Amino acid sequence: MGLRKGQKELVEDYRGGYCAVPAIPGGGKTYCLSVWAARMIAMGIPKPGKILIVTYMNSAVNNFKQRISAELQRLGIQGNKGYFVSTIHGLCLQIIKEKPDHIIANEEFGIVDEVTKVQIINSAVDEWKRGNERRLAFFIDEQNFSSNKLNDIYKTWHDKFCGLVLGAIGDFKCRGIGPQEALERCKSLPNNSFLRCASEVYGLYDRKLKISGFLDFDDMLYSSKKILMEDSSLLEKYQKKYTFVCEDEAQDSNLIQSEILTMLANGNLLRVGDSNQAICGSFSNSDFTLFKSFCEDPATTVYNITQSSRNTKDIINLANHFVKYIRERHPILECRDSLLPQYIEPVSDDDERKNPEIPEYGIKAGIFPSWQDEARRIVKKAQEFLNLFPDKTAAILAPSAWKIKEIVKILGSWDLPYEQLDNSSPEKNKTVRMLGRVIDYIAYPEDGEKLAAMMLECFLTERYDADHKTQVETENDIENEGQKRIGQKDMLTSFLKRCPTENLLYPQGGEINIRDIPRELSKSTIWSDFLSYLDLVRELLEFPDTIVEKLILYISEKLKFGREERAIAQKVAGDVRYLMSRSPVWRMGDLALELLSPKNMFNYFAGVVYELKGYEPKPGVITVATYHKSKGLEWDVVFLTGLNYADFPVTLKDKFIGEYWFLREEYKNPQAVIKAEMQKKIEGSFMGDPLVKAKIETISEKARLLYVGITRAKQYLFLSGEHSNQGKRNEVLPCQYLVEIKKFIDEEGSK
Q1: Which of 155, 197, 509, 600 has the fewest other C-beta atoms within 10 Å?
Q2: Is the model's pTM score more than 0.85?
Q3: Are 64 and 55 spatial neighbours (Cβ–Cβ below 8 Å)?
């Protein structure tokens, strides 16, 4: 593939110094950075050092490695000695392992997973609360709630407070502030200061982490910077090791990451990103202004990548119109810089990869009377699209988890193929659930319903005749409740629920009495398949369950898990050994219950393994994801749902999700209050109302989030929202962006 405008200048001209590459969505930044790295290595410019590329996701690490390796092979160079690709945390782990004594850690330290991290912060907050119950309760608007209601509110507030404290601790670490310094800096704050409370919990949390031998992800950056600042010889070693430092997704960088990479780069720093796709600020300490400031620095050479062949020209026009609307007509003046004037250009006619072309105007917008109606209609449209174009990819994006759940429920009831992109998705947690199903049955072998669940989820996974139903057939079933056809899986499940399992696994005389089997079931394909797995079920039941971790590995062997699935099984086995040593009363049934829970303690690791594999949309399968999860992906058709004034606020009067209704008015957005206190106390400057500033930041980030959603679509795009409960107190209005976009596409579509 040839190099385009901006790409060509980078590859041919950049040989050192500070360099920024602002790249529009679909601009091919990974491709061009890979080509640049391979060309530099081929010319021997980085020698004797290497090129370091730091990127955001583990899947992106693998993508870069494959692309650079392929380009080097194309240039006749074998091996991968001239470059190193890593996430920032992988790089920091490498640095820490060089000098663990600098951070009072032994060589056996581990990185805490999300489940353990939540347990530790809960323990730290519980310890802090023993002398501070009234301080924590102070923030609650107690006078407006009954005593019965308050009990539930206290529990909710505890959970929310733990998350807020973790965020504040992360902000302290991002600024290079340890627990003792944080406590010292905040002791002059009022007793009812969120930040002061967080600084007090910080020390308890840090101590509990160290006692357990853990570092968290924020520790890794904090400790790496500390080591590099205190050990000049180690810093010099890394500066010589990496002649060039490249930061991918630079718009999502934070202060401490930026400082670490600047130190390592020693003057040769290349940053690639898109400020218009900075959507992580609301749930991380990333700061998209860092990349913007780097681009504006007079010492930085800038190569703009503005051409993209991802989208049709109509979708490009809509994306550009949205940028222009934000910059020129947004009702909040402070939000007009939410999107930078980076307009997408279609590629030239002689480009090897042209922009997609379709025979009609492929953008539509709709407003529905309720979310339930919107979700149902969108799923129907997605099904119709894939029936017409079975070779194309499709995605339904929603702004929140509960809306995702509604969409998934409809897809499941209509038996439509889908893949869900989150840490609780069936695809990511398939391995954990399969282990759970087998262990659940082994724990209760007399339970026919558990046998059925195990068989259908682990063995009998094919689509059997009379099981697959179209949407129309499903709707007909609802209308004609008594006339449903019974699928083979339903027949088997119904039979196993009432049949003693010992009659099937260990029948008298060694053979199952065929007279006990319903005639229709005995003649079905699923029954013959069921019989073929009974020997394997007996093997699983007869394996000694006294050493549960060995049973888990045995199950993974018998289920013929692949490499990634075996890795998950090994992690589960190791964790189970630890859990059972800590709690001898833990039994097989408890383990099964945990494995089958949608939010089980093993999800995080399963998500990491899934991420390493990477995700590639499949034709004919509907991807379901949040807008945030869609970043970096693309589909032929994209349905952007949930465009209402709460999920995508535009004015300060709009409803804002995330404010805590049970807190006092001035504390309803505690995250904003903490941020204001942090800026005022630590940075020495903060002006204005923190709640108003938080709303402006939310509006700005939501505008960028919608821009990301629009630019995911290659050929067709459908935007939708709701206008429900009209004239009532709980009225839900469509997002103002949707109203503006609908006007634009109505005009464009009529041309």
Answers
A1: 509
A2: no
A3: yes
Residue 722's SS3 state is strand
Q: Which two tokens stand for residue 347?
A: 């590629």
**Cα 48–chain centre separation:** 38
- Strand pairing report for 50-55 and 242-247: parallel
Chain Cα centroid distance, residue 400: 12
Q: For residue 648, name the pLDDT band (cuts at 50, 70, 90).
A: very high
The Cβ-side half-sphere exposure at 504, using a 13 Å CA radius, reads 27
Could you give the CA distance from residue 249 to residue 22 in angstroms, rounded to a whole number?
10
Side chain identity at 28, as an amino acid letter?
G
Beta-bridge mates of residue 18: 269
Q: How many residues does the chain have?
A: 751
Angstrom CA distances, 203 to 127, 183, 206, 473, 681, stand at: 11, 8, 5, 60, 18
Q: Looking at residue 586, what DSSP letter applies?
A: -
Contact 437, 404 (CB under 8 A): no
Tokens linked to 29: 């930044």
CA distance 410 to 404: 10
Q: Helix, strand, or coil here: 400?
A: coil
Element (H, E) at 580: helix 563-582
DSSP H or E stretch at residue 247 = strand 242-247
DSSP 4-37: -TTHHHHHHH--SSEEEEEB-TTS-HHHHHHHHH
Q: Name the residue type at position 206.
A: D
Q: How far is 610 from 623, CA to CA, in rounded Å?
A: 15
Q: Do residues 701 and 279 make contact, with C-beta atoms less than 8 angstroms apart? A: yes
**pLDDT tens by residue, 365-422:** 999 999 999 999 999 999 999 999 999 999 999 999 899 999 999 998 898 999 888 6
